[in-house]
Design a protein that fits this description.
The complex is a heterodimer. Helix content of chain A is 71%, strand content 1%. Chain A has 13 helices and one strand, in the order H-H-H-H-H-H-H-H-H-H-H-H-E-H. By secondary structure, chain A is an all-alpha fold. In chain B, 49% of the residues are buried. Chain B is of the alpha+beta class. In chain B, strand 2 and strand 3 form a beta hairpin. Chain B has a single domain, classed as Alpha-Beta Plaits (2-Layer Sandwich), CATH 3.30.70. Helix content of chain B is 20%, strand content 16%. Chain B has seven helices and nine strands. The chains are: A mainly alpha, B alpha+beta. At the A-B interface, helix 5, helix 6 and strand 1 of A face strand 2, helix 3, helix 4 and strand 6 of B. Strand 1 of chain A pairs antiparallel with strand 2 of chain B, so a sheet runs across the interface.
Chain lengths: 400, 240
């Protein structure tokens, strides 16, 4: 090993520690915010008795939905036998564990009584979708951990397919479960749709792949490697299809809502009349779907790794906008307690609820991203197998 | 002291001298229906309310005030959106111009969505139909608040002091109208019912076909709010 290699290896190590320190700091700030919220109560958040779930839920649900979606990459490899994806299965499993942990970190620390997390883990009400989700999440950890083990241990490789199938099925159920958290809220206009479960699954495909593409790009760059353009092309086409599918579901969801007369006022509110309309059209539709699709299907841009990565970042921005509109917008629209009548009260009945997120709740959400980031970072650092090793990579292929 | 009050005083026990203040309300429910300590709630009762909106004026909030005093909901909360409201007055204006005012609180559904969704089982329905939150088991996830069609539940956003010992409340937990379970168990009326001088609120046993509330529901036109959700509410309304 010559001096130059040693020096660059050292530089890479110190860079790694620097990045790790930033990740740790973000996670610690998130945890600190949770302690602050715990001490002062949710009074220090923007959440109220009108908007009961806020920004932390946007972050948590993004992380959990994307966590199940990112496992898709592994499923395409193990379940559907595509070699290029098989090579990516370990990384996809690691990202699932990382994001699931990040999501649960936020969800648990946002509880009014986060100190009672043991109650949540030991007392179950089996009619509650939330309780099923606690099961689904812990099961997911177990299955994915076994899956990773099977993938990395040559001896166990024959089991990769059955375990992969189990993980695939579990993740579909998990996303359905997450979607159903809302689907069971019979009294709220935003969530009265049978489309929620399939919509969440397709959203998870797109968001998960976006996270995967970004992580993969960063890892290749870090290791000075280039991605085979054929693989990039395949992945970006799949990504484009997922984004289009999300858009399709979104249109069907709103159109079916418009079909039901009692939902028209809600649709008018979300799509035209409120602050959520701008987030919907600009954030969700333009930034989250149309722009990334334009990039991916652009004859030149679509070939470039940096452009594909940019498209993935846009999809994630769009995902946050989508969840914001879905969760906060859905709560802001007044409950129809006396359908058809105008109502007023000191409890803001009949009024659109207002919400301005406070710093601590934002930092808690960010902390969840920090946790996911840290787990990924440590995983890929400790176990080199997470870096996808493709067989034939042509020189100067798909770089930026 | 009236005969009624004297009996009430004895029933409440000498240890609870404070009961004198509420004694006039004692025994308005048949004494046999009061529950002894350690005795489980019985499904021979299903407690409910019948609210006659014709007798309820928009300017009156006696029930709301009585509830706050009884349950110790007296804290000053800076952001009104974060205040706990167990009972509130809603003013309604129908499309045809008719106006009503009515108290709205937990409707004590027979099939309560809050109980269905609560992950820990903290939200529960007693055998006598009263829907409660177990403050020791609630983790403060607020899923029940998302599920309630009546916006009847509140989350405690701030540390509380000076609570009524009979009505435990606490930061980070969800709470709602308990139908004054601590009074009902002693054979007393809920505070709101007692405070309503117009007689707009009737408390009683829906499981007993001979109770006044059951007879009125059987013979007069009454409504359940959001009857379309088929929750079989314990609180019924007249005049809307
Ligand atoms: S806030 Fe408490 S009572 Fe409500 S669903 Fe969560 S644990 Fe149950």
């Amino acid at each position: 090993m010559n001096t130059a290699t040693v020096l660059s290896a050292r530089a890479a190590t110190s860079k790694f520690w620097l990045i790790a320190a930033v990740g740790a700091l973000i996670s610690a700030i998130g945890f600190g915010s949770a302690l602050y919220m715990e001490h002062h109560g949710h009074a220090v958040t923007g959440m109220t008795n009108q908007i009961v779930w806020g920004l932390p839920h946007v972050f948590a649900i993004f992380l959990i939905v994307a966590a199940s979606g990112v496992l898709n990459v592994a499923s395409i490899g193990s379940v559907f036998g595509k070699t290029a994806y098989k090579k990516r299965a370990p990384l996809s499993g690691l990202l699932t564990l990382a994001m699931l942990s990040g999501g649960l970190f936020v969800l648990m620390l946002d509880l009014g009584r986060a100190d009672r997390v043991m109650i949540a883990a030991t007392k179950y009400n089996f009619t509650s979708v939330f309780a099923w989700n606690v099961f689904l999440y812990s099961g997911m950890f177990g299955i994915v951990a076994v899956y990773l083990w099977v993938l990395m241990e040559k001896r166990l490789y024959p089991f990769a397919k059955p375990v992969g199938v189990a993980a695939f099925v579990w993740r579909l159920v998990l996303t359905t479960g997450t979607g159903s958290i809302f689907g069971f809220l019979i009294s709220r206009n935003a969530y009265q749709s049978a489309l929620l479960a399939p919509m969440f699954i397709i959203m998870s495909f797109a968001w998960g792949l976006a996270v995967f593409l970004i992580t993969q790009a960063v890892m290749f760059r870090w290791n000075g490697k280039t991605l085979d353009p054929a693989i990039l092309k395949r992945m970006k086409n799949l990504f484009g299809t997922f984004i289009a599918a999300v858009l399709y579901f979104l249109i069907v969801y709103h159109l079916t809502n418009l079909y039901f007369a009692k939902q028209v006022a809600f649709e008018k509110f979300i799509l035209i009349d409120s602050g959520f309309a701008a987030i919907f059209w600009i954030g969700q539709v333009l930034i989250g779907a149309l722009l990334p699709m334009a990039i991916l299907y652009h004859p030149r841009l679509g070939q470039r790794m940096c452009a594909v990565t940019a498209a993935a970042v846009l999809v994630i921005v769009g995902a946050f906008c989508e969840l914001y509109v879905f969760i906060i917008g859905g709560e802001a629209f007044p409950l129809d307690i006396f359908p058809g009548a105008e109502i007023t009260s000191s409890f803001f009945d009949g009024q659109v609820a207002t919400y301005s997120p406070s710093l601590p709740e934002f930092l808690l959400g960010l902390g969840g991203l920090g946790v996911a980031f840290m787990i990924t970072l440590i995983g890929v650092r400790l176990i080199s197998k997470f870096l996808p090793e493709d067989d034939a990579v042509q020189p100067d292929a798909a770089t930026d | 002291m009236t005969e009624n009050a004297r009996r009430g005083f004895l029933a409440a026990g000498a240890t609870f001298a404070g009961a004198i203040a509420v004694a006039p309300g004692l025994h308005l429910i048949a004494p046999a229906l009061a529950r002894g300590a350690g005795e489980p709630a019985s499904n021979a009762n299903r407690w409910g309310l019948l609210i006659d909106t014709n007798k309820c004026s928009a300017s009156c909030d006696a029930c709301v005030k009585a509830c706050a005093t009884e349950n110790g909901i007296t804290e000053q909360v800076a952001d009104p959106r974060q205040r706990s409201q167990w009972i509130r007055k809603i003013d309604i204006k129908e499309k045809n111009g008719r106006q009503h005012s009515l108290p709205m609180m937990c409707q004590h559904c027979s099939d309560p969505p809050c109980v269905d969704v609560c992950p820990t089982g903290a939200s529960m329905k007693r055998a006598d139909g009263i829907v409660l939150v177990d403050r020791h088991v609630c983790i403060g996830c607020r899923y029940c608040m998302m599920a309630c069609p009546y916006k009847a539940r509140s989350f405690v956003h701030e540390p509380l002091t000076e609570q009524n010992p009979q009505v435990p409340r606490g930061i980070g937990c969800v709470e709602a109208c308990t139908l004054c379970v601590h009074r009902v168990d002693k054979g007393q009326l809920p505070a709101c019912v007692e405070a309503c001088t117009e007689g707009a609120m009737l408390f009683g046993n829906l499981a007993d076909p001979n109770s006044e509330i059951s007879r009125r529901i059987a013979h007069e036109a009454t409504t359940q709010v959001r009857a379309d959700l088929k929750l079989n509410t314990g609180v019924r309304y007249q005049g809307i």
